[in-house]
Amino acid sequence: MKKILFAAAITTSMLFSYTMDYDKDTISIVRKMKVYENPKWVSKIELTNGKKLFFVSPKSMIEFYHQPGKWFDIGVKSEADFKDILVTDYKSLKPIDAKGAFYVYGSSHTSPAGDDLVPFANYEEAKKFAASYNGKRVLSFKEIKEALINLLNGRI
User: Fold this and answer.
1) So where are the chain's domains?
2) Would you tell me how many other CB atoms lie within 10 Å of the CB of residue 83?
3) Is the model's pLDDT at 32 over the cut of 90?
4) Which residues contact 34 (CB under 8 A, 6 or more apart)?
């Protein structure tokens, strides 16, 4: 029985194991910067056609997510074109599902894209970080609206 549970745990961890498979030449879609220079901020959208889009920050990735038509040359027509949406957990530096992450808004930490949203896999870790670094709120992915991204980008 223990062997079966162990095998199931290994299989499950492999199914939900994500990678940030960029190299030194990978350029961010939105900011046109090299993503390898700031690995703790890297975000990625993998499309259903296999194309991988990288971003220098969660804010940049969410900006693309809300307005993919702004980058019409990418060819994204709807959310159905997105296969995986990933961010890097700020504490563990491991890739995590962006839609299940928790984001700290208003902290004193900035990304290469400026004011940003600091992602965590765990709500408690996000709350601790917010308390330590003047974070104003902890948000879920679906709570992050385009207006907040515009505010962070200084467009409001």
Assistant:
1) 23-152
2) 13
3) yes
4) 24, 25, 26, 27, 28
CA 78/CA 70 separation, integer angstroms: 12
In this prediction the pTM is 0.86
Q: Which pair of structure tokens corresponds to residue 147?
A: 């207006």
DSSP string, 36-66: GG-GGG-EEEEETTS-EEEESSHHHHHHHHH
**What pLDDT does 16 receive?**
59
pLDDT score for 145: 97
Q: Which residues pair with 82 in a beta bridge?
A: 47
Q: Which two tokens stand for residue 15?
A: 């199914």
pLDDT at 14: 44
Closest by CA to 61, choosing from 92, 95, 93, is 95
Q: What's the rounded Cα separation, in Å, for the pair 101 and 121?
A: 5
Evaluate if residue 13 carries a pLDDT over 50: no
